[in-house]
Every structure is written in structure tokens, then in C-alpha cells.
Design a protein that fits this description.
By secondary structure, the chain is α+β, with helices and mostly antiparallel strands. The protein has one domain (5-118). It is 30% helix and 29% strand. The chain contains 2 helices and 5 strands; from the N terminus they run βββαββα. The protein has a 5-stranded mixed β-sheet, with helices on both faces. The termini are far apart. The relative contact order is 0.18. Residues 112-119 have low confidence and may be disordered.
């Protein structure tokens, strides 16, 4: 059986009790042919653990991310977590926020409704 793939599509930043900035990512759980099964979220630590488990089981990371202002997704791996650029909202680049993703989905729905009425 082929493994699931994961595509990170948004992030949600928050400050922990310790005062450090942390984040949660929202991702699509996808089958080997690109079919979407679920939309889920993971905290940064859970994401790192999942990537480690991928390496142990499959020899590679099954995680990718769609960064802001990029045309293609990027492979996410353990070395991405070595340091974090202070102007980006994750260790592997700038992701759309959950609010920005929601706005995009609203616009897509409107366009699809307009298209379906026009045809």
C-alpha cells in the first residue's frame, strides 16, 4: 500500500506561556494519486515527529508546503527546522495564514458559483 502524502497550506501563529513564538500548520492529507482525504492541523513539534517517522518508515519526508507567492510546493524535511527567519511564520518559509486561506476559499467559491450560473 502506498503512503499518504501531506500538503501544508496555511499556518496559525501563537505565543506560548514561555513567551516564544510557535505555530500550527493546516494541511491536506492526500492519497498517492493526489486525491484529498482530509484537512487537518498539527503543532510544530507534531510535524517534526511526523517527518522523523516518515524517515524511519519510508526513508524520506512525505511532507510538502505551498508557500506564499510560489507556483509550486516545496519539500519539507528535518533540516528546515534548524533555524527560523524572523520575518517568516514557519521554519520552512512564509505560509498563508488561516484567515488568508479562508478568504481565498471564499473567492474561489464565488467564482465557481458565477461560472456555474453562466454555463
Amino acid at each position: 500500500m502506498l503512503p499518504m502524502n501531506f500538503l501544508i497550506i496555511a499556518s496559525e501563529n501563537f505565543t506560548t506561556i514561555e513567551g516564544r513564538s510557535d505555530y500550527k500548520v493546516w494541511y491536506l492529507e492526500m492519497g498517492p494519486k493526489g486525491e484529498v482525504y482530509d484537512l487537518k492541523s498539527k503543532k510544530r513539534e507534531e510535524l517534526i515527529m511526523s517527518i522523523m517517522e516518515n524517515h524511519q518508515r519510508y526513508g524520506r519526508s512525505l511532507w510538502r508546503a505551498f508557500l506564499q507567492n510560489h507556483e509550486e510546493s516545496k519539500q519539507i524535511d528535518l533540516y528546515d527546522f534548524i533555524s527560523k527567519n524572523t520575518i517568516e511564520n514557519t521554519h520552512f518559509g512564509q505560509l498563508p495564514t488561516v484567515h488568508e486561506l479562508q478568504e481565498t476559499l471564499k473567492h474561489l467559491k464565488v467564482r465557481l458559483e458565477v461560472k456555474s450560473l453562466a454555463s
